[in-house]
Design brief:
The complex is a heterodimer of chains A (411) and B (338).
Chain A (H helix, E strand, L loop, with lengths): L6 E3 L4 E5 L4 H6 L8 E6 L16 H4 L4 H29 L14 H9 L6 E5 L3 H6 L4 H8 L23 E5 L5 H14 L6 E6 L6 H12 L4 E7 L8 H4 L15 E6 L3 H16 L4 E6 L17 H10 L1 H11 L5 H24 L43
Parallel strand pairs in A: 4-5, 4-6, 6-7, 7-9, 8-9
Antiparallel strand pairs in A: 1-2, 2-3, 3-8
Helix pairs in contact in A: 3-4, 3-12, 3-13, 4-10, 6-13, 7-8
Chain B lengths: L1 E4 H15 L3 E5 L15 H5 L4 E3 L4 H13 L3 E5 L10 H8 L2 H4 L9 E6 L15 H4 L5 E3 L4 H13 L4 E6 L6 E4 L12 E4 L4 E5 L2 H17 L3 E5 L2 E3 L3 H11 L2 E8 L4 H13 L8 E5 L8 H7 L3 H22 L4
Parallel strand pairs in B: 2-3, 2-4, 4-5, 5-7, 6-7, 10-11, 10-13, 13-14
Antiparallel strand pairs in B: 1-8, 6-12, 9-11
Helix pairs in contact in B: 1-7, 3-4, 9-10
The complex binds thiamine diphosphate and magnesium ion (MG).
Amino acid sequence: MASRTPTTRATTGVTTGTTPTSPQKAQSTAKRKTTAAQKVTATPKAPAKEKATVRKTPAGARNPKSADDSAQLIDFYRQMMLIRRFEERAARAYTQALVGGYCHLNLGEEAAVVGLMSAMRPSDYLFTNYREHGYAISRGIDPNRVMAELYGRIDGVSKGWGGSMHMFDITQRLLGGYGIVGGQLPLATGAALAIDYREGDEVVLCTMGDGTTNIGAFHESLNIAALWNLPVVYVIINNRLGMGTTVEKASAEPELYKRASAYRMASERVDGLDPLAVYAAAGRAIDSARGGKPFLLEVMTERLRGHSVVDPATYRSAEEVADLKENDPVHTLAARLVAEGILNDEALAKIDEEATALVVAAADFAAASPFPEISTLFDYTYATPVPNDSRRLPGEPLFAPEPLPGQEVSA
Amino acid sequence: MSIMTYRQALHDTLRAEMLRDDDVFLIGEEIGVFEGSYKITAGMLEEFGEKRVRDTPIAEEGFTGAAIGAAMLGLRPVVEIMTINFSLLALDQIVNHAAKIYGMFGGQARVPMVIRTPGGGGQQLGATHSQNIELYYAFVPGMKVVAPSTPADAKALMLAAIRDDDPVLFLENLALYNTKGEVPDDDTPAVIGKAAVTREGSDITLIGYSRMAYVASKVAEQLAESDGLDIEVIDLRSLRPLDRETIIASVKKTHSAVILEDDWLTYGIGAEIAATISDGAFDYLDAPVRRVAMAEVPLPYSKPLETAALPSTDDVIGAIRQTLEAVGHRTSTTGRKS
Ligand SMILES: Cc1ncc(C[n+]2csc(CCOP(=O)(O)OP(=O)(O)O)c2C)c(N)n1
Ligand SMILES: [Mg+2]
């Protein structure tokens, strides 16, 4: 556990502090290293030890029995269960060779995904990476179309062109999952630039993995965003692993949210197994960005399985795997709903059934959707027709055979 | 002589070179604990320790550049870049630095390093993860680019690359890792810059490298059986330097050529080969030189589209048949005999 005493850094005037851990978390995540919210808020001009930099946890997280919070929790559970069942089905479809390429799942990250997406307005923009099915669904995209994309079908969100790693939907303002680590960071920064340019009030949320903070684009993007006061929230989904490389092995400052201080950017770390905590922290981060102060939010989460569907994750110890089971955010939330008398087992089972039915329907929809026509292969190279575009299939000659010079047959 | 996979040949050679020379070390993402994305470095961390099998953060520009710097001080780093697509993030360090340091400083510093990286499409990895962009490196003076297609060459070219005093981009291929072949036991390095005639023939020359050299051999075997064709196959093995002599000698003998490449047609590796043939064997040609390459699109994920965009055995056979038809046409109308 990080130090609970606020410490200061004279050079940047950054203050570190923590808020009390919520009771639910204390019992469910006893073994975890995270506290509910550890914050670094860059306030270069404020006195270093000012208390106000450690903001209060919103009432909801400490008083989860209010009617609003109960409804919120049920909604979160519903969404998380849908992602859970969807991802399990995606994994199965992959082993049945209905899905190809790389397939990275959000299993273990459901609370983080749902908490983040719920804090966004419909008009806000999302940039994410290849581990994105849950985001697409939570953003409001029909699971049928998400599954159809995995199947490479015409009704997929990217018309079958992108696959698992590359989903895009302009109406839900999902501006892409990206397969190149860090590729989305400069793009998200640029989208925020466009919003700022047009004096809009939207915010860009840009998610990335913990490992992604080590790519050069992370530094370049955060610096630019802070320098130009862009409306963007960078979110680190810290599942503690790159593929098999731990955060400690990859990052000289393993408390990743602290990196924001290099740019005098506000930042915070939050427990990503608690959807309410994530929701609240994301709300603060988004508010900050909307006010022209970009934000770095680190969400501490878990990756329940391998890096992608094909990775058996043999590099993880049995103890670690057991811990994962114990920290499973879907189970944790289910237990909490029961413990707090919000839902009983029967109601939980019903939510599960509904989610399962949606996923079965999505798989049926995907299987029934046609593959794109081969004739469309050249339709997406350029946005407008251009003379001399090469529209040849492999092996097609540049020029059709002609009679030898002087031997043309007269018509 | 033993039979092993391309993957095994790479693994064993890296290991042998590590044992032979303390200055050789491995560096890259997920090569240690994870044992490599494609398991080439399996077991190496355990045997050699963290100093010599260095897992890096996801920082292609940083760790490739660091390897270049270490090489300037005489170490012999073998960098693994997970796939050639990610080498784009290190392009500046490779092109502006690794390839320039020897010349720009008047020959005072050498960069004896290897960058291992696989190319290859066909695995439904989508537009950014399926590219064959070795051309970017083959274009640059100061770089050497080798592209083995067999387990034996994987070994011989790796030995040569590690012992070479210049930066070598060592192109592997996802589709070749599990292919098997005979590998000699002795440690004779290949000569970088030499192509190989892997099958002698007189009817037509097929030219390829990496996976497409493998495809060329398969097609030649198949057409020998089905059509009685006598096809000559050239495996380029090295893209820079390029062995133009071997290409010309073969075309002078067969009078026609089909070039096989997994990259895009326009400005691709095949264009350089076709230009070489036009220059060095113009008077010997009985048909236009044909190229079989990938369709010029960002590669789609969807299986039927991806399959249509990638060169297949049938595409190659079609191009060979059409070329031989053109040869027949010409030789019958001009009286030339091949
Ligand atoms: C530039 C680049 N380098 C390497 C890769 C291969 N790769 C894909 S995901 C990944 C690990 C990313 O880890 P993290 O950022 O923690 O995200 P997570 O997968 O854990 O969600 C790597 C190395 C890549 N896609 N792009
Ligand atoms: Mg991670």
